[in-house]
């Protein structure tokens, strides 16, 4: 049952030579072969190369590599040299796009000895909240295959929940790590904007995109963040703020910490089981020595509207590069205009087209001041809300989503309702602060419930410490879906 190990457990066994990298990698491959036919979490399998890398590590055992022998999956927007990377879009899939370079994140992981098993499913160009817009088809939730795994990092979350790998890479623009982590019952870390490099990761909204991880425990997330974080000369938005030794700060103690409960996050219409699970978690923190206080984030109600002006505006700009000339989908046409229309109509799916049109409209000369500029002003107010609340508390505690995972197709004809699923995650993204999603309960239907710990800018250490302490005191993160094996 090697595939069920956490990253930290696997590292200890590898270093003690109780297990080989080849055995560990083969166990994950066997698990993918066993269950992914149902889940559809993995869209490209790099198994032969992974086994070669594992054998190389076993033959030249190197304890200096902090992730030596650990198999993982990357969301299908992370460029890896020579490996198909399609953003789960026909725009790139039809031409089997293979980047000639590595993203900074995958390069750092490779240098640390991690072994890539392949690519995980995602909403097309990460646009969606359910991994239903992927050209490879929907990823199903391991807890209930009739429900979504969440999005856009749904493939990564489902893979972790199903023990298909030891960790997975994801991106979080408006909740795309935290929401699927909550739906699938795993740990998901969204970092402060600028904490990790975005170089080599296909962009959706450049002022909002962040690079993070989905893992089985908070300890695993801390191990990975230490290796992934830091200044990157290839990404001018990365910060030169010092990178702490995150694992060493996981003391398990909550004594003296103050936790803020944002009242606007416990909204009317929220599933009562979700509300109760998060409030029960707050009581657990109090029993561990923390103080819980109420705080207010008054501009939360404008979060979704603000996000869905700013995000599509940046989408409109970022998608312009996919013109079918330098790379991507191609079509026959009689003129340049007809060519652009043909390749973008055939290459992009409905959600991508919708966001391009919304964004282009918001950025147009007649509406820029009315929509885009106003949204930027509201974004400033949202950030000020978080700054004020986090002056009163060490971190904030809130639900990740108002409900558990919804049924596949439930919002297929209602994009606005789909956008509202992000109501509790997008304000954190607008503010640029870090958020950690961890399991805190199960519904009566045995669906995972997640909560998010929201920290101060570049203070991932505090939310990781608190999340680890909670997982030391509870067992929710150890619960597994009934997939067998």
List the helices and strands and how they pair.
Elements: H1 7-15, H2 21-39, E1 42-45, H3 47-59, E2 71-75, H4 90-93, H5 104-111, E3 115-120, E4 140-141, E5 144-148, H6 154-161, E6 167-172, H7 178-184, E7 187-190, E8 210-215, H8 218-228, E9 258-262, H9 272-287, E10 291-295, H10 303-318, H11 336-347, H12 350-363, H13 368-392, E11 395-399, H14 415-420, H15 426-431, E12 435-442, E13 448-454, H16 460-473
Parallel strand pairs: 2-3, 2-6, 9-10, 9-11
Antiparallel strand pairs: 1-3, 4-5, 6-8, 7-8, 7-12, 11-13, 12-13
Helix pairs in contact: 2-3, 6-7, 8-16, 10-12, 10-13
What does this structure look like?
With 485 residues, the chain is an alpha/beta fold. It has one domain (2-301, 378-478): Alpha-Beta Complex (Amidase signature (AS) enzymes). Helices cover 39% and strands 14% of the residues. The strands form 2 sheets. Strands 1-3-2-6-8-7-12-13-11-9-10 form an 11-stranded mixed beta sheet, sandwiched between helices. Strand 12 (435-442) and strand 13 (448-454) form a beta hairpin. The termini are close together. The mean pLDDT is 96.
Q: What percentage of amino acids are in beta strands?
A: 5-15%
Count of helix runs: 16
Number of domains: 1
Instruction: Please state the CA-atom Rg, rounded to the nearest Å.
Output: 21 Å
Mean pLDDT across the residues is 96
The parts where pLDDT drops under 50 for at least 5 residues are none
Enter the CATH topology name.
Amidase signature (AS) enzymes
Query: Level of helix content?
Result: 25-40%
Helix-strand string: HHEHEHHEEEHEHEEHEHEHHHHEHHEEH
**Major sheet: arrangement of strands:** 1-3-2-6-8-7-12-13-11-9-10
């Amino acid at each position: 049952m090697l595939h069920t190990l956490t990253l930290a457990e696997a590292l200890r066994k590898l270093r003690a030579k109780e297990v080989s990298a080849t055995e560990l990698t083969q166990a994950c491959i066997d698990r993918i072969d066993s269950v992914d036919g149902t889940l559809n979490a993995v869209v490209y399998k790099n198994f032969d190369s992974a086994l070669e890398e594992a054998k190389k590590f076993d033959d030249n055992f190197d304890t200096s590599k902090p992730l030596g022998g650990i198999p993982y999956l990357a969301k299908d927007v992370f460029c890896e040299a020579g490996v198909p990377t399609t953003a789960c879009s026909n725009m790139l899939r039809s031409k089997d796009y293979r980047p000639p370079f590595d993203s900074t994140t995958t390069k750092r992981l490779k240098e640390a000895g991690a072994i890539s098993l392949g690519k995980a499913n995602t909403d097309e160009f990460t646009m969606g909240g359910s991994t239903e817009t992927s050209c490879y088809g929907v990823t199903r939730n391991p807890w209930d295959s009739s429900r979504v795994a969440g999005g856009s990092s749904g493939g990564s979350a489902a893979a972790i929940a199903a023990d298909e790998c030891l960790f997975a890479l994801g991106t979080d623009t408006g909740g795309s790590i935290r929401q699927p982590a909550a739906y699938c019952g795993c740990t998901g870390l969204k970092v402060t904007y600028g904490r990790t490099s975005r170089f080599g990761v296909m962009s959706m909204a450049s002022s909002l995109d962040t690079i993070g991880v989905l893992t089985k425990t908070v300890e695993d997330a801390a191990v990975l963040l230490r290796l992934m974080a830091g200044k990157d000369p290839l990404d001018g938005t990365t910060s030169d703020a010092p990178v702490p030794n995150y694992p060493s700060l996981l003391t398990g103690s909550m004594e003296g910490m103050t936790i803020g409960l944002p009242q606007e996050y416990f909204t009317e219409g929220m599933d009562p089981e979700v509300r109760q699970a998060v409030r029960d978690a707050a009581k657990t923190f109090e029993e561990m020595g923390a103080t819980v206080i109420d705080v207010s984030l008054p501009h939360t109600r404008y979060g979704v509207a603000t996000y869905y002006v700013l995000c599509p505006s940046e989408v409109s700009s970022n998608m312009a590069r996919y013109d079918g000339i330098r790379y991507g989908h191609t079509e026959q046409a009689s003129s340049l205009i007809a060519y652009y229309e043909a390749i973008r109509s055939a290459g992009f799916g409905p959600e991508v087209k919708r966001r391009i049109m919304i964004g282009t409209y918001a950025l147009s000369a007649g509406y820029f001041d009315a929509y885009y500029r106003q949204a930027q002003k509201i974004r400033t107010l949202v950030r000020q809300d978080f700054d004020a609340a986090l002056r009163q508390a060490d971190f904030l505690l809130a639900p990740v989503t108002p409900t558990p995972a919804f049924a596949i197709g439930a919002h297929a004809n209602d994009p606005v309702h789909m956008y509202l699923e992000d109501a509790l995650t997008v304000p954190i993204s607008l503010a640029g602060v870090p958020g950690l999603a961890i399991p805190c309960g199960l519904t009566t239907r045995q669906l995972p419930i997640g909560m998010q710990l929201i920290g101060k800018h570049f203070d991932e250490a505090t939310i990781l410490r608190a999340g680890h302490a909670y997982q030391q005191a509870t067992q929710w993160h150890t619960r597994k879906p009934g997939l067998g094996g």
